[in-house]
Amino acid sequence: MSWQIDGKTNGPDLAWPDGKRIAVMVTFDYDAEFLRMSRAKSKGTTIGFTDFSRGQYGPHEGLARCLDMLDATGIKSTFFVPGIVGEKYRDTVEEIAARGHELACHGYMHESDRGISRQEEIGILEKSESVLESIWGKKPLGHRGPESIIHPFTPELLAERGYLYSSSMKDCDWAYLWEKDGKTLPLVELPCDITMDDFTYYYFTFSDPAVRSMYTNREVYGNWKQEFDGLALEGNKIFILKLHPQMIGRASRIGMVGELIAYMQSQGAWIATCEEVARYVLSQTYSREEARNDEMA
Ligand SMILES: [Zn+2]
Fold first, then answer.
1. Does the 19-296 domain belong in CATH 3.40.1280.10?
2. What separation in Å is there between the alpha carbon of 146 and the centre of ligand 1?
3. For residue 186, which phi and psi values (nearest 5 degrees)?
4. How large a percentage of the chain has pLDDT more than 90?
5. In whole angstroms, what separates CA 208 from the centre of its chain?
6. How far is the CA of 222 from the centre of ligand 1 (A)?
7. Which of 6-10, 82-86, 104-108 has the lowest mean pLDDT?
């Protein structure tokens, strides 16, 4: 089985609506304590009680600030939510949906093991989809692997289950369609990178291996603004912020994101949910790719 993952097919061909130079998606991975738990499991370690509580800062404090900031800037976001977070913190996920944001799949227990079988992944997707659907009223259409981990069979599985997009790869700054055995799948990849991930800049720990530095908000703003400016100049690229309520939802930090969004709005960016961008990409490219599939058949 071979997958074309270079992303070089669709990117340069694609023009954003109304002549917009760039598509921006402000996304959140709403992991609560399950990010740390899955990371400890995949490393064969355990986490302490207080470390556990660091993840709970998301549902207890950070999320409300993120939602208020989104309302203040007037944009809609995509929240990738593990199924168990939808169960344990159901009222908060209902609040995300009630405020008009998109819910997308992010594992059930935030499973980041590399040895998951196709059958196990189907079970994880079924459980997660049913929790999110019971809150949102419709099935999730997007997927991001916990810790960005997906498997060789995942894209085809997502396409079979009616997903419109995946957002786990890091290979380019374009939206592109997945392929399998030379045929195009109706599944858009929206790659995102740790460059635009809040954990990259704000994660701090005394445990081994210790990380004892933290970037200032001005430095983070500067990095993200430069990335945005560079991509907007190149044209027809995507810019995805990957944020976590437990990390970016501090009182000292959330205003910086609002400021960046206001800047991107002032530059005429198309700021949309992942679903909106994926639908647009499919509408522009998939019929063309289907014709190519037919020619090859
Ligand atoms: Zn996550």
1. no
2. 5
3. -80, 50
4. 74
5. 28
6. 25
7. 6-10
